[in-house]
Amino acid sequence: MRVSQMLLPTLREVPAEAEVVSHQLLLRAGFIRKTASGIYTYLPLAQRVLKKIMQIIREEMDRQGGQEMLMPIIQPAELWLESGRWHVYGPELFRLKDRHHRDFCLAPTHEEVITVTVRNEVRSYKQLPLLLYHITNKYRDERRPRFGLMRGREFIMKDLYSFDQDEAGLDISYRKMHEAYTNVFRRCGLTCRPVEADSGAIGGSTTHEFMVLAESGEAAILYCTACDYAANVEKAITLPAAGLDPGMQPLELQEVSTPGKKSAEEAAAFLQMEPCHIIKTMIYKTDQEIVAALVRGDRDVNEVKLLNALNAINLELADEETVRQATGAPTGYVGPVGLKNIRIVADPEVMALANAVAGANKQDAHLMNVHPGRDFKPDMVEDIRIVKAGEPCPKCGARLQEARGIEVGQIFKLGTKYSKVLGATFLDENGKEQPIVMGCYGIGVTRTMAAAIEQNHDQDGIIWPASIAPYHVVVIPVSAKDEAQMNLAETLYRELNQAGVEAVLDDRPERPGVKFKDADLVGYPLRVVVGNKAVQEGLVEVRRRRSGQTDLIPLSEAVAKVREILPTL
């Protein structure tokens, strides 16, 4: 391809709406253009990158026995009503009606369609296991689309679904996909780490997210350098809290005045104690009830853990009026002692406190010497706090480290969550009907492209890993007016393509500096410059984009040298 013939609308200025590096560079380098909020047009260079990512995905899915199919984007509401998710999924679900006023949605995921498809086609255990996948557009009406391709309303995704006879079969399918995902992201040139995660709206018992490590990542992950433990902050756990000292004597409950001391830190400072001796009481509303969540004063409530513990659909922090009506006190002075008609969920660390301090459910007052079990009894004791870096690893006890990550893939053990409700069954060896055991495995294709840039860039532009670069090499004649340079560049360009190297020729009548800047911005792994030395001495300049290393190579050896370097990039 000649650059003069390419649709390559590069920009010199950083677009104002672009917040993260990948969004900035995809716009500046002419890969994408915004069509609407969270919806983008992929220009030719982006399409080449996406096709390469998809090809890697296909090869790794097929290697594990996956079979590719294609499912519809428009799905009838009846399937979602049957699964129970039509009214649960929330406002992210794009809903529409056809001309007959029948309800449909744009697919955010395909559990319903694939489960019903298998329900209609699979009868016997002899037809299992199955690994079925497709790559297609997905739609989620994000409240606030942001970060370009990181959080869009339309995106490309690969999802694979496994169907097995039992949990043992699901374990095998899960391990296959774990291996496949590891290979996909390695082949895409990404530093990626699988972490334990929350299953969210998809459901299921076990799930791992595959995180590309990058400072711009939306998700915080905790990991151990001494073992293989890693989890996102929504899922991370630590070693159990130490129990009460059996020699500790509970003191008499005492009310003290704490005017204006609403936060745990303010109350602790006023009372001359550490925040870890405070019981922080947070009031939440679910779809069914008011809940008091108790954590230590130096901790924060993990709302995902709390939501799961309550088995609720929705959870939000209660407003000031709700707090007053439920407890009789303003926010900041609520405590568990004497609370009525409110379910209390306490973190295990709270139950390990003795002679603690809590809100007195009265303006400007706290209670001293609160003793869990004596002064209040929680309805539930569950891990509901956020774990932070520096705390001990739950597997080996070493200190956890924190990093930022971009989720590019997630794998789920669904079990029979969908097969039972949608009636996907099979007859086992004894002729008995059993529910199919399922797994779900997704990769964000467009997000993977963006994550690759977040992890591979510098101040001059993108640095593509060779495996997913739109082109491997750009051949640049220094002067388009010099016939000898142009002839040599044309010949080298043809020879590279004939040798299986994806090359472009920058034949534009632009200054060399403009061409070099565009080459760095687009991120071609290699740049070959044909100048006066090529004409006079038979030497061309080969420059590696990532390291900046430049070599002078005899023109006759240039193709072989390029083919030698590419696998290392």
From TrEMBL:
Gene3D superfamilies: Anticodon-binding domain, Bira Bifunctional Protein, Domain 2
Domain of life of the source: Bacteria
Enzyme class: ligase
Aminoacyl-transfer RNA synthetases class-II family profile domain residues: 48-465
Catalytic activities: tRNA(Pro) + L-proline + ATP = L-prolyl-tRNA(Pro) + AMP + diphosphate
Gene Ontology cellular-component terms listed: cytosol
Molecular function in Gene Ontology: aminoacyl-tRNA deacylase activity; ATP binding; catalytic activity, acting on a protein; proline-tRNA ligase activity; transferase activity
E.C. numbers: 6.1.1.15
Gene Ontology terms describing biological process: prolyl-tRNA aminoacylation
Cell compartment(s), UniProt: Cytoplasm
Subcellular location, principal: cytoplasm
Keywords per UniProt: Aminoacyl-tRNA synthetase, ATP-binding, Cytoplasm, Ligase, Nucleotide-binding, Protein biosynthesis
Classification via Pfam families: HGTP_anticodon (PF03129), tRNA-synt_2b (PF00587), tRNA_edit (PF04073)
Subunit structure: Homodimer.
Its biological purpose: Catalyzes the attachment of proline to tRNA(Pro) in a two-step reaction: proline is first activated by ATP to form Pro-AMP and then transferred to the acceptor end of tRNA(Pro). As ProRS can inadvertently accommodate and process non-cognate amino acids such as alanine and cysteine, to avoid such errors it has two additional distinct editing activities against alanine. One activity is designated as 'pretransfer' editing and involves the tRNA(Pro)-independent hydrolysis of activated Ala-AMP.
Family as reported in the entry's similarity comment: Belongs to the class-II aminoacyl-tRNA synthetase family. ProS type 1 subfamily.
UniProt remark on domains: Consists of three domains: the N-terminal catalytic domain, the editing domain and the C-terminal anticodon-binding domain.
Protein name: Proline--tRNA ligase
Gene: proS
